[in-house]
Design goal:
The complex is a heterodimer. Chain A is elongated. In chain A, about 40% of the residues lie in helices and about 20% in strands. The two termini of chain A are about 45 Å apart. The longest helix of chain A is centred in the middle third of the chain and has 18 residues, at about 250-265. By secondary structure, chain A is an alpha/beta fold. Chain A has helices spanning about 1-5, 15-20, 30-45, 55-65, 65-75, 100-110, 125-140, 145, 160-165, 175-185, 210-215, 215-225, 250-265, 275-290, 355-365, 390-395, and strands at about 10, 80-85, 85-90, 115, 150-155, 170-175, 195, 200-205, 240-245, 295, 305, 325-330, 345-350, 370-375, 385, 390, 395-400. By secondary structure, chain B is an alpha/beta fold. Chain B folds into two domains: about 5-70 and about 275-345, Luciferase, domain 3; about 125-255, Rossmann fold, CATH 3.40.50. In chain B, the strands form two sheets. In chain B, strands 1, 4, 5, 6, 7, 8, 9, 10, 11, 12, 13 and 14 form a twelve-stranded mixed β-sheet that branches. In chain B, a hairpin with a 5-residue loop joins strand 9 and strand 10. The longest helix of chain B is centred in the N-terminal third of the chain and has 22 residues, at about 15-35. Mean pLDDT of chain B is about 90; it is low at about 355-360. Classes of the chains: A alpha/beta, B alpha/beta.
Chain lengths: ~400, ~350
């Protein structure tokens, strides 16, 4: 075991506290200590001048500010006793720097001791957040937190995965299908379980007439850019299929003004050479699988629009990134049932009222789609993610009759 | 000029204007041929919105990504006419390209390879020393692009010797005998760049053996990537080769080629430039929009060849990066474009939540 400790790099906490994790008492969800700890971390982050350069850190700091934490807490207020499951082992994705912090926050708010593996890549964002945490731990009395939190970094290693998994009551695995199968090689106790965030597929629905009537098209396009190009259209929540609702003529007009503005937004977007070959290759494969798909004449390789003449259940297998959009026009929202399978995560929308979508979703009862959000909000973190309520999933309800 | 007539002129003899006139037509005709005989190819062009009748210049010839041959069976002849299926393992995992050859395409490949290589080594067949082990060819499990390359070049040898034993060690005795037999005559060496470096140059440097190869010509291929990783330049490769066996740097020829376009290889001239022949061409394209890059500008390499008739591989977008250095005016005197390979395109850091933990370090 000593050998293991030398292979793990501790950004927060130390090996000795890790080995005592199993004996720490669970906390109630949204415990006062945890809330006041995160409020202090949020204040510290928001006062850090560096975060201007890191909007993702700023967004996180904003997420864990006092007002938001109290508002989240209200959603879980009831008389029942909810306690942490015990120990949570988080495996953060290697490519989204701040994700580890949200996962850790959820694990703490739900009353647990947490060990978080961060990416082996060096991200400044990880350092900024860990320094803020360390500062708060050093300055204030947070013994309860100190003995329940470790942030670690280690290279791919089954032995370490196995050790941390053996401590865990729940594993939270981000990073997609390959990471999940890799981590699952490590066994857990019989009562323990995983909350996994597998590879997902997302799409957008635009009401054509609403796009035409919209006053702030530039704002809409910027939001769409943030949902897609900001992460090279690689985020699980990034729309890859764009569905237009309306009559053919209106759709054609809306597409015209929308994509012209998207193209204009891409002036400074740098396209990776391999990504262009990915697009070309995917188009060839798609053409082979479905007669009738075609590429719209394009200005450059930053924006490829692939027009579909029908929907199918395996569109998610025809995905590429960095500006590769499948497009489909219809007047019937219900037709989407043909496409939506279990892999579908986020439906990003524009031009719908919330109640209208509620009705459409209830009627459609899709196999997939865990979240329906306005364009521009696909990457916003929520305690309910991929259909999992993280607070309930990471805690247990004790019934007292 | 028909393909047959192309064989009647020297392989590096066509200046720009003439080449455009004789090269574009057969490439366009090949495009039409594959549209007619390969349903998949036809579907792909439809999806891209490309029509054969719109092709006017060489730059208009549609291109497929070389990677596609790893995932899709593409052929333009009936399966009973296929005499050989070439495979290559890519650098990225298990996927293997499958290239289907009929008798004609296969024969043409050999013929063109001969024409191109002869321009560098002469028309005479020379004693050939293969800087590799015969296991690569014998052992079917190991048979790969490496084995195919060796077999392809073997036809240039009047007599041949595999210089390495099965442990990839130089067989000093056999090599000494072979060289003594052909003393004073020019001989040809063939090998894969990294094997030559690792098992020949470095091995000789460690041993006292100094074969006299001052009259030899070395043809090597497979890429410089592993050498670049070890910070070994082309110049150093040649200098150290010269030091251990006396081979003249001007007689060391790198070549660029791929199983998807066997035959039309691009050989390095004494000026250190890779050359297109009458049978092939390269177009360097910008990632931004696939437009044609200027001379001296880095881009993605597209390769064109008049040979592929049994499969739609006459125009391919590779995953290699290169620079076109000029056309018709290389100091070596050959006509056609000359260029340099910059290496394999590197994938940019992936952003997004699906990651590469399992394969990362």
């Amino acid at each position: 075991m000593q050998a293991l400790s030398s292979k793990i790099d501790f950004l927060i906490g130390q090996y000795t506290s890790l080995s005592k994790f199993g004996h720490t008492q669970p906390l109630e969800i949204f415990s006062e200590t945890v809330l006041s700890f995160w409020i202090k971390v949020s204040e510290r982050l928001l006062s850090d001048s560096q975060i201007k350069q890191y909007p993702d850190v700023a967004t996180f700091a904003f997420f864990c500010r006092k007002a938001n934490l109290f508002s989240l807490q209200r959603q879980y207020l009831d008389a029942s006793l909810r306690l942490g499951r015990g120990v949570i082992f988080h495996i953060a994705p290697s490519n989204v720097p701040v994700n580890f912090a949200y996962s850790m926050l959820a694990g703490m708010l739900s009353g647990n001791a947490n060990v978080v593996r961060v990416s082996s890549k060096d991200f400044v964002q990880v350092d900024i957040i860990c320094l803020a945490i360390q500062h708060v731990l050093d300055k204030y009395e947070f013994g309860l937190i100190r003995e329940r939190l470790c942030v670690v970094r280690y290279p791919r290693d089954l032995e370490i995965n196995q050790y941390l998994s053996s401590l865990a009551d729940v594993r939270v695995i981000w990073g997609g299908d390959t990471t999940i199968s890799e981590v699952r090689r490590a066994t857990m106790s019989a009562k323990a379980y995983d909350i996994c965030f597998a590879d997902r597929y997302s799409f957008a629905v635009f009401k054509a007439e609403a796009v035409l009537a919209h006053q702030d098209l530039k704002g809409l396009v910027r939001s769409f850019y943030n949902d897609t190009y900001l992460f090279d259209q690689n985020a699980c929540s990034a729309p890859r299929l764009v569905v237009w609702l309306g009559d053919a003529k209106t759709i054609e007009a809306a597409q015209q003004i929308f994509w012209t503005d998207v193209q204009a937004q891409l002036l400074n977007y740098e396209i990776d050479a391999v990504a262009t070959i990915d697009k070309l290759n995917m188009l060839c494969m798609h053409a082979d699988d479905y007669a009738g798909v075609h590429l719209r004449p394009r200005k450059d390789n930053k924006l490829w629009r692939i027009m579909l003449n029908r929907l199918s259940s395996d569109l998610d297998e025809h995905r590429s990134a960095a500006g590769y959009f499948l497009e489909y026009a219809t007047h019937d929202f219900g037709e989407l049932s043909v496409a939506v399978n279990r892999k579908y995560q986020t439906l990003a929308y524009f031009g719908f009222e919330n109640v209208e979508l509620d009705g459409l979703m209830r009627k459609a009862r899709f196999l997939g789609i865990d979240r329906v959000v306005p364009i521009g909000q696909t990457t916003n973190f929520s305690l309910i993610w991929d259909g999992h309520d993280l607070i309930r999933g990471l805690s247990r309800q004790c019934t007292i009759i | 000029m028909t393909l047959d007539e192309l064989f009647e002129v020297a392989p590096f003899s066509l200046p720009k204007a003439q080449k455009a006139a004789v090269f574009t037509a057969p490439l366009k005709a090949l495009t039409a041929h594959h549209v007619q005989h390969c349903e998949r190819y036809k579907q792909i062009l439809v999806a891209m919105g490309l029509k054969v009748e719109d092709i006017q210049t060489l730059e208009d010839i549609p291109f497929l990504p070389t990677r596609l041959f790893k995932s899709m069976e593409l052929r333009s002849v009936a399966s009973q006419d296929i005499v050989k299926t070439m495979t290559s393992s890519g650098t990225s995992g298990q996927a293997v390209s499958r290239i289907f050859l009929d008798r004609d395409t296969s024969a043409l490949q050999t013929k063109v390879l001969t024409r191109i290589v002869s321009d560098f080594v002469g028309k005479q067949r020379l004693p050939l020393v293969i800087l590799d082990t015969s296991e690569v060819v014998k052992n079917r499990q190991l048979f790969s692009a490496r084995g195919a390359g060796i077999l392809g070049f073997s036809m240039f040898g009047s007599k041949k010797l595999y210089a390495f034993n099965e442990h990839m060690e130089i067989d000093v005795e056999a090599m000494s005998v072979f060289l003594a037999e052909h003393a004073g005559k020019s001989i040809m060496l063939f090998g894969f760049t990294f094997m030559v470096w690792l098992h020949f140059v470095q091995a000789l440097e460690r041993s006292g053996f100094r074969p006299d190869l001052s009259e030899a010509i070395l043809i090597h291929g497979g890429g410089f990537k592993k050498l670049t990783d070890q910070a070994v330049s082309k110049a150093e490769f040649k200098a150290r080769l010269n030091k251990v066996c006396g081979i003249s740097p001007k007689n060391v020829h790198d070549y660029y080629g791929m199983v998807e376009q066997t035959g039309t290889i691009y050989v390095e001239c004494p000026q250190g430039n890779l050359h297109t022949s009458n049978f092939s061409d390269v177009i360097i394209r910008r990632a931004e929009d696939f437009s044609v890059a200027s001379i001296g500008e880095k881009g993605i390499i597209q390769v064109l060849s008049v040979l592929p008739r049994s499969y739609p591989g006459h125009s391919l977008l590779t995953e290699d990066e290169g620079v076109c250095l000029g056309e018709d005016d290389c100091l070596c005197g050959r006509f056609g474009k000359y260029f340099r390979i910059e290496g394999r395109l590197q994938r940019a850091e992936i952003r997004g939540c699906s990651d590469t933990y399992a394969s990362s370090v």
